[in-house]
């Protein structure tokens, strides 16, 4: 699937800015009780709401698990 370079650049910048925001405010993310690993939180990429950042906090460090697009089967990722 082709992605325009300008959109890809905007997505990359938005994703980076979202990660920086999460780093400063990790408690804002939604705790995911439906994920098989405890402590996983999610936050949407700013300006790209179909993209979700999965992260956690371990020993005062931000741990990024993955960034998933809305077309991904999240149920399979979380409970399967």
DSSP E strands, number: 4
Tell me about the biggest sheet? 4 strands, antiparallel
Q: Residue-averaged pLDDT, rounded?
A: 88
Structural class: alpha+beta
**Helix content range of the residues, please?**
25-40%
Which residues sit in consecutive blocks of at least 5 with pLDDT less than 50? Answer: none
Explain this structure.
32% of the residues lie in helices and 34% in strands. The chain is of the alpha+beta class. A hairpin with a 2-residue loop joins β3 and β4.
Q: What secondary-structure arrangement, pairings included, does this model have?
A:
Layout: H1 5-24, E1 30-31, E2 41-45, E3 48-58, E4 61-69, H2 74-79
Antiparallel strand pairs: 1-2, 2-3, 3-4
Attribute tags:
single chain; 32% helix; 80 residues; alpha+beta; 4-stranded antiparallel sheet; globular
